[in-house]
Specification:
Elements (H helix, E strand, L loop, with lengths): L2 H16 L8 H13 L12 H13 L27 H19 L3 H5 L5 H4 L18
Helix pairs in contact: 1-2, 1-3, 2-3, 3-4
Length: 145
C-alpha cells in the first residue's frame, strides 16, 4: 500500500472517531474502500500514484454517489470464496447518513475548507480570503460531544 493510501486511511479512521455518520465503518471496510478507490484508474502492472487529497476526494465521491443505497452490489470481501458484502451490516439510515456526510465533505473540499473535514483550526492564509459564511453543518457531519 502506498504512502498516500496509508495517509488517507488514517484520515478516515480519525473521521470515523469524530463524525457519527462515519463511525459504523470497520477498519477492514475502510482499507478496502481506499484501495479500490485508488485502483479505479485502469492499470496493468503499476498502480497509479495519487496524492492523498485526490484519494480522499475519490472516497467521498464514491459514498456521495450513493453506491451504498438500495439495489447496490456493495463491497465484496476479496478474502472470502463466496460473495460477502463487507458493508452488509449497515442499516439503511446509516447508509443514507454516510452518503449525505460524503456529499457535504465534497462541498467543503470544493470551497477549499478541507480543514473542517480534518478537524483542525482554519489556516491563517484562508481567514483573509473574504469567504462567504456557510450555513451550519448538517447533523450527520457534526462532531461527537
Amino acid at each position: 500500500m502506498s504512502v498516500s493510501l496509508i495517509v488517507v486511511l488514517q484520515l478516515l479512521k480519525d473521521l470515523s472517531k469524530r463524525i457519527p455518520a462515519w463511525s459504523p465503518l470497520s477498519t477492514w471496510a475502510l482499507e478496502l474502500l481506499v484501495e479500490r478507490c485508488a485502483r479505479t484508474k485502469g492499470y496493468s502492472t503499476q498502480p497509479p500514484q495519487f496524492s492523498p487529497p485526490e484519494v480522499l476526494r475519490r472516497v467521498f465521491e464514491l459514498f456521495a454517489s450513493g453506491f451504498l443505497l438500495l439495489n447496490s452490489p456493495g463491497l465484496n470481501d476479496p478474502c472470502e470464496k463466496e460473495p460477502v458484502d463487507v458493508l452488509g451490516y449497515l442499516t439503511n439510515q446509516e447508509r443514507e447518513d454516510l452518503s449525505a456526510s460524503a456529499q457535504y465533505a465534497l462541498r467543503l473540499m470544493v470551497y477549499n475548507q478541507l480543514y473542517k473535514i480534518l478537524g483542525i483550526a482554519q489556516p491563517p492564509a484562508l481567514k483573509n480570503l473574504g469567504q462567504i459564511p456557510r450555513s451550519a453543518a448538517p447533523s450527520s457531519f457534526k462532531q461527537k460531544s
